[in-house]
Structures are given as structure tokens and as C-alpha cells.
Amino acid sequence: MNDKKIMNRAADNIRILAASMVEKAKSGHPGGAMGGADFINVLFSEFMVWDPDNLTWEGRDRFFLDPGHMSPMLYSALALQGKFTIDELKQFRQWESPTPGHPERDVKRGVENTSGPLGQGHTFAAGAAVAEKFLQAKLGSEVIKHKIYAYISDGGVQEEISQGVGRIAGNLGLNNLIMFYDSNDIQLSTECNVVMNEDTAAKYKAWGWNVVTIDGNDPDAIRQALTDAQKEEERPTLIIGKTIMGKGALKEDGSSYEHSIKTHGAPLGGEAYVNTIKNLGGDPENPFVIFPEVEKLYADRAEELRKIVAERHAEEEAWAKANPEKAELMKEWFSGNAPKVDWSVVSQKEGSATRAASAACLGALAEQVPNMVCSSADLSNSDKTDGFLKKTHSIVRGDFSGAFFQAGVSELTMACMCIGMYLHGGVIPACGTFFVFSDYMKPAVRMAALMEVPIKFIWTHDAFRVGEDGPTHEPVEQEAQIRLMEKLKNHHGKDSVRVFRPADADETTVCWAMAMENMETPTALIFSRQNVAKLPAGNDYEQARKGAYVVAGSDEDFDVILLADGSEVSTLVAGAELLRKDGVKIRIVSVPSEGLFRTQSKEYQESILPAGSKIFGMTAGLPVTLEGLVGANGKVFGMPSFGFSAPYKVLDEKLGYTAENVYKQVKELLK
């Protein structure tokens, strides 16, 4: 146990660095970082276990920051460990700096998650806690035994997602999850009592959490709370730390600047900054310094960790020798490589709904990919993720040997927890719901894309053919939204999301294969509720790997190209039969993934959609979904409204998704 004097000195060092980073950048949030410095210091200098010589070690404890605006606190604390340099702290919020305004995942520097939108970070942590227990059930507690730490703020507690993750973590008894709530009662534009007066402790206790309230700026109280939390065997722990926003801050006149809203989201500025740095024991002329005694504190901790980790590595080696097959599995699971899947075992029923075809694929995955976890937001028997569930069982409190995660009705929470499973490592997550409810998931989809998490999003009931449920459940604009993200590039120049909407059951198998092979970005799989006719005989489904391909008609001599994705392709096939009777020469193109098609060579793209061609596109979504492919010489028939409540075959007829209307529209185009 370290002396309280040195612990306070180290926390003040973090406060000085954090305030100075914001001051130099002329932008940022110093107050929360200064208030949370005590907890982060105790955690990192005495409790967190990692390998100083291998920061990606699978057995490390993980720390997930929820309030990303408190990044100066995290960067400063990590600098004490040697993971960031002083010069890098000085480049806070600058071009190409490794210290952006909100942390971006970089495990080699100790940043486990990209955090920005409040609430997601601690939900990732809960997902990581599930992943650890899942892997523990598969591999054994001898090799998988660490803790997941999370840090939330008042804002994180207020975000609606906290309700979902609080419920699930408590219900599952995630005793490996320890969360610190930085309760300083100040937020960006007001004091917290203006917007909340709930008993947060009672709320988490009702969810089944172990809850303790402490002075969050007292290292002794923090130490005791963490010690007790590590011993908890049945419940996740919430440590409510009553902290001081802007701890140690002084105004220009030397009076206290603590607990001020103004310190939350702006530099301290001028003499207030100077007075604050002096008050904390630093030099305003040279604030970017790690004090010698603090440097020694963390150097000593590094040596302690080397001894702890050496023992752990010895245990792991002994385990690997005794369990060579499991050791090989663990190595492969944490490699990040795509799993090997024999898709030839998948037998698709001709003319089935693509959601049913997806179920067949999921059944094969459940049997062949033992580190895959599938989830559903209380729709498994409708989104057909039960194809996976039928080959395993649900993850429940006390038994994490199953591979199906029942999230309940909480789409955003489900998505973020599944992302957290991947961030932990060793797990390939997939999650499903109705396509229209993808709206609830968009913030998580965006974060998965930003972090390049290869999660598989399964979205069914893909169009107005949901039918009787009516426009509240009929996705119209959703495909256009996700395909916009398909056009967005990530840091490595790749499409941020890969999107597939297959045209029939067999194309579904190929799309699932591509999804499982994609370990670089999220994949969205969009499936039909209703049965879909099989594409014309002789179709080479492997060509779907190019994103768009000819499924019927002339390769060269044609009058018009009919183009669609999903179930509309079969409508075009039916319409083409009528057009051929009039002597119209047709080419039909299925485009399960425009993004993937755009990555093909210009020569291939031109061979499928030659410049100047007359193209008729049909989509059950907004016309803009296909306009980029159809071009100026073509026409898109799409949905102009939210939809209506009626049987789907009636809607097809009323809305013009028929062979007869394809005939009519194409004839008008050819005029």
C-alpha cells in the first residue's frame, strides 16, 4: 500500500497534466479529468494488471472509459506508465496526434475503446465482461481470469443505454465487472440536481448490483472499495465516488474554482490556470512534467507487474502443456483471423425467405465456430437467429457455456455489448433485430465502424412487406441510411461498413460467407420476411462476391438493364418475362452490395453496367438507394411513402411491385 502523500502527489500530477493539455489546445474538458484523477491513479498504480512488456497480453485487466471528454485524465495517467510521451500530451487535439479529443482505440497504448457518445463505453465494458466469462467457460479459469473496469460520469448514468446495461449486467451477475461512477453533480450546462434527483444507488441495487458510496477523492477509500469489489463473487460492483469537479482549481483572484460548471468544458484560462497549477504543486512555466517521486511510483509498479505477470505466464504455459487443444483454440480465437467454415453443409430450401436462409447459415456457424456469440433483441424466433440458438443454449447467470446472448428489448444496449465482446478479444459477435429497429442501433453501428469492429448485424423484415404491422414497422429509409455509411471510408481507406441484401436463399449463403470472412469492418446483413423466388437456373452465385453480377439475360446485346437488390430482383425477373414477349432484350443484375461492387476494377464495373446503358432500378426503399448505380440514362422505381398496413401481397399490388408494373415502367423508359 502506497503512502497517502505520494498518492495525492501523483493525482495532482495527473490534474496538472490534464489541465495543461486543455490549456495548450485552447479546447477540452479539464474539470472532470481533475476530479477523477484520484480514482484513476489508485486503479493504475495499485490494482490494474497488465504486462508492461506486452500490452496486448490476453490476460490483462481491461479499462473502459465512458466519458470520452475526460481523455486528458486517461492520457495523463497512461503517460505515467510510459504509454504516452510528454510531447504527445502537448499535441492534445491536434492534427495526426495520438491524443485526440476523445480517445480512439489503441490497445498498445492502453486505450481499450473509442469513447465519445456517453453511455456506450461502460456498455462495451459489460460486453467484455460477458466475453470473459464465455471464454472462461470454454477454456477454463486457469488461463482466463481478469477484471473489467469501467468509468462512468453523471452523463453516462443519464443516457438511456445505462438502463439496459444495468439490467443485463445485474441479471447475469457479472462479478468481474467493477465500475466507478464519478458523481460530481456537475454537468456541461447545469448542475445535476436540475435534471435528476433519483437514488442511483438504489436503482443499481434493484438491478442486482453491489453498490458502495465513497469519497471519490480519498485514495484510502478508493483502495478499500476496489479491494472489496475484487472479492465480490455474485454481482457487478458500482463504486459511487463523490468527487469534486475541477479539484484544486483556483480562480484569477485565488478563490476556489472547484465545483464550477465553467471548468467542465473549457480551459481554465489566464491567471486561473496559473493559480491552479501553482496550487497543485506544479510550475506554470513548465507544467508538462512527471514528478520524480511519481515516476518512481509507476516504475515500481511496473516491476511489481513484471513479477505478477511472470507467475501468470508460467501458469499459462503449464495450462497450455496440459491442454494443447484448448491452447491452440485460444491462440486462434485471439488472432483476429476469420474462422474456417464449411459452407457446403448448408442446404437451402428453394424459394424460402432470406431470413430463413440466414437461419440455415447460423445453424452451421453455431456448430463450426465455437467462439461465436449470437444475440437478439427478443426476436430470435422472428429474425430467425434461433437458427443459431437451436444448436446451443442461452447465456444465463451462473452458466456462460452457451453461445446465445438474450438481450431483451434493448437494441442499442445489445449492439454495444456485442461490440464490447469483440473489444475484449477472442469472440466473434453477431446480433439481430428487425431492420426498422436498426434506427435504435445507429450510434453503435457508427462506433463499430469507427473502431473497425467486425460485428455482424442481422436485420430482417427488410421492407414494406412486413405488411399488416404497418408503417411503424416497415423500413423504407433504413437501407439508404446504412448504404450511406457503406460509402464512408475508415482510417485505413476501406468502406466503414459492408452491406449485403441478398436476392434469394442461395445468395444468402454467399453473403454470410463474405460476412464471416470480413474481419476488418462491421457487416450488415439485410433479410426478407416473405418467401423469395429462386433466381433463374444456372446462376453462378459465387459472382455475388463481386458485389454486383449478371443473374439473367444477354451478356452483350441488350436493350435495357434491370437492376435491384434483395427480393426486388425476383420481381424484375418476373417482369422480364413479359418484356421478352415484346421482343425487349434484357439483362438482369443483382447488387447485394454496392460498396463491394465499387471496389472492383473499373473494367469489371463497366462490364456489368456499361456506360450509356438504359437502366431500370427497383427498390423497396428510397429511390436514392439505387440512383448512384442507375445513372442519368435510367430510372429508379422506389417507395415514396412510409408504407401502409395490409397483407404484403396486397401492398405489392397497390404499390406497384409487380411484373406488370416493371413491364410498364421499362416500356416508358425505352420510349
What topology does this entry show?
Layout: H1 4-25, H2 30-47, E1 62-65, H3 71-80, H4 86-90, H5 120-139, E2 148-153, H6 154-158, H7 161-172, E3 177-183, H8 200-206, E4 210-215, H9 219-231, E5 237-242, H10 270-279, H11 292-322, H12 324-333, H13 354-368, E6 372-376, H14 386-389, E7 404-406, H15 411-424, E8 428-434, H16 442-451, E9 456-460, H17 478-486, E10 498-500, H18 505-517, E11 523-526, E12 549-553, E13 560-564, H19 568-581, E14 586-590, H20 594-598, H21 602-608, E15 615-618, H22 624-630, E16 635-637, H23 648-655, H24 659-670
Parallel strand pairs: 1-2, 2-3, 3-5, 4-5, 6-7, 6-8, 8-9, 9-11, 10-11, 13-14, 13-15, 15-16
Antiparallel strand pairs: 12-14
Brief overview, please?
This protein has 24 helices and 16 strands.
Protein model, in words:
With 671 residues, this protein is of the alpha/beta class. Helices cover 42% and strands 12% of the residues. The protein contains 24 helices and 16 strands. The chain has helices spanning 4-25, 30-47, 71-80, 86-90, 120-139, 154-158, 161-172, 200-206, 219-231, 270-279, 292-322, 324-333, 354-368, 386-389, 411-424, 442-451, 478-486, 505-517, 568-581, 594-598, 602-608, 624-630, 648-655, 659-670; strands at 62-65, 148-153, 177-183, 210-215, 237-242, 372-376, 404-406, 428-434, 456-460, 498-500, 523-526, 549-553, 560-564, 586-590, 615-618, 635-637. A six-stranded parallel β-sheet has the order 7-6-8-9-11-10, with helices on both faces. The protein has a five-stranded parallel β-sheet with strand order 1-2-3-5-4, sandwiched between helices. It has a five-stranded mixed β-sheet with strand order 12-14-13-15-16, with helices on both faces. Helix 5 (120-139) packs parallel to helix 7 and helix 7 packs across helix 15 (411-424). It is elongated. The protein starts with a helix and ends with a helix. The mean pLDDT is 97.
